[in-house]
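We modelled the chain as a single entity of 347 amino acids. Its sequence is:
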Amino acid sequence: MIFRKHISGWVLLWACLLTGEVLGQDIHFSQFYSAPLTLNPAFTGLIGGDIRMAGNYRNQWAGIGRYNTYAAALDAKVLQRKICPSQLGLGLLLISDRSGTVGLNHFNGAISTAYQFSLAASGKANMSLGMQAGILQKSFQPEEAIYPNQVSAYGINTALPSGETAVATSISYLDLSAGALFYYSEADQYSLHAGGAIYHLNQPDESFLAGDNRYDLRQAYHAGAKFKAGKRIHLIPGMQLMQQSKAMMIIAGNNLEYSLSEHEETTLLFLGAWYRLQDAAIAYAGLQFDKYRFGLSYDITVSAVSNVRNGHNSVEVSFIYLNNFGPEIAEHCPKNKRGKKVNCPLM
């Protein structure tokens, strides 16, 4: 039974390498649009109200190993009266990720900031520049690991020496990232945004062993829009591309937003379909009550991981609190010197 469990781990490893699912040690969310501070630091403070709280949980491939990711973020606008019509955002991001059966844990605590400004007097075209600085801590449980020297044609023998010289079971290092975002909004008719970010700018050393194993730069690009398609309906297409070393991940799709109230957009229903290239089809459903939005998605794996008998799919849950959503966003954005409101992108 133990041998079969770890053979499944090897199947998972090769599937990840073949599909590009794993980008170094970086996490990802299928609901990337519900995790703005993990998507691009330029989204920090880019909200329709004064404060935003977000939480995300991902359970991946439960039948193969323990792959759980948690994220929590808090961001807000600051110094609004002093720098109007520009905007300054400040935020905090916490990420915890546990991978596999050896207790490989990543914890990242980062401070995020962004500066937003208009590119036109109308306030419709805008730019945001953001940065993140954090401490990334990585650890594992060596007693739960199985090393190549302990595997033979007869099975696994953990009593044999590992043959590895680990200098530490826990390491910490500084991690820096930066991003930019362009967005355009035309009242409640439509909005567009596109941006990119580069992570691990300082390329920290992440090796537990006596050697030099530095993070490769991760490039992340994204784009999205929101169009009014009817009296109660909006379409919200989007895409994300991430590349790190030779690995690449592309996800694209669309969410439909439907107002359950004829006169007010305080209660919204979301239904969506997305596809992560050569990896998974994703179904999404969400519900918004006034200032609170809840989302649930399910990944149906179509890559080599699907050959594992049980537990090869993934579940994701998201939560967002924002003191104002929808058409009221413009009422909370600052005015520029000509009296025009600086619009905010609608995700």
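As a brief sanity check on the tokenised model: Confidence is low (pLDDT under 50) at residues 1-24, 325-341. The chain has one domain: 2-332.
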